[in-house]
Amino acid sequence: MKYIAILSLGVALLTAPALSQMKPPVPMTTAQFGHAVTGQSIAILVRVVAYKRTSLSAELLDRESDSVYKSTGKIVDLYLPEDTPFVMGSFAGIKPGAALFVYGVATTRGRADIKKIIVLTGYIRVE
Questions:
Q1: CA distance 45 to 20
Q2: Which long-range contacts (CB under 8 A, 24 or more apart) does 80-85 make?
Q3: pLDDT (tens digit per residue) in 103-127
Q4: Between the CA of residue 52 and those of 19, 25, 82, what are the distances in Å?
Q5: What is the pLDDT of residue 25?
Q6: Which tens digit of pLDDT belongs to each residue from 85-100?
Q7: Which residues pair with 116 in a beta bridge?
Q8: Where are the alpha helices (DSSP H) in 22-112?
Q9: What is the pLDDT at residue 22?
Q10: Is 90 in contact with 119 (CB distance < 8 Å)?
Q11: Which helix H or strand E contains 3, and what residues bound it?
Q12: Distance between CA 61 and CA 29 in Å, rounded?
């Protein structure tokens, strides 16, 4: 019995870091993105409005919970290079209405260059 308790504690300690890594990333708020300075790393959640070649127009979303986001009406312009890595999803998932978690670098007010994308369409709800 003593060994089972020690084994259970060991398993719990080993899996705790993995469980904490499974939480979705927390995006910047609209206000935080609005105050981002040129060259600053950004992490935002957006809903695609339009996409053409390397230009992505999207609406910023604010987090309510891990799976619920609120529409803000704030449109941002993002540069999407052809060699952008996708953590989850692909270029095929980028279409109007798609939800994207974007890691990037702020360029000018309301604009950023995308460095990495996670396609979250189907995994979150936008109100």
A1: 20
A2: 80/51, 80/54, 80/55, 80/56, 80/114, 80/117, 81/54, 81/113, 81/114, 82/54, 84/114, 84/115, 84/116, 84/117, 85/115, 85/116, 85/117
A3: 999 999 999 999 999 999 989 999 9
A4: 38, 27, 11
A5: 78
A6: 999 999 999 999 999 9
A7: 103
A8: 30-34
A9: 61
A10: yes
A11: helix 2-21
A12: 8
Chain CA centroid to CA 35, Å: 18
d(CA 29, CA 48) in angstroms, rounded, equals 17
- One-letter amino acid at 81 equals P
Give the DSSP H or E segment for 72.
strand 68-79
The residues pairing with 62 across neighbouring beta strands, listed in sequence order, are 70
* Placement of tokens 């989850």 in the chain: 88
Kindly give, in sequence order, each residue whose CB lies less than 8 Å from that of residue 43, ignoring residues fewer than 6 positions away: 25, 26, 27, 28, 101, 102, 103, 104
Using one digit for the tens of pLDDT, what is the confidence trace for 50-70?
999 999 999 999 999 989 999
- What does the DSSP assignment read for 94-124? -STT-EEEEEEEE-STTEEEEEEEEE-TTT-
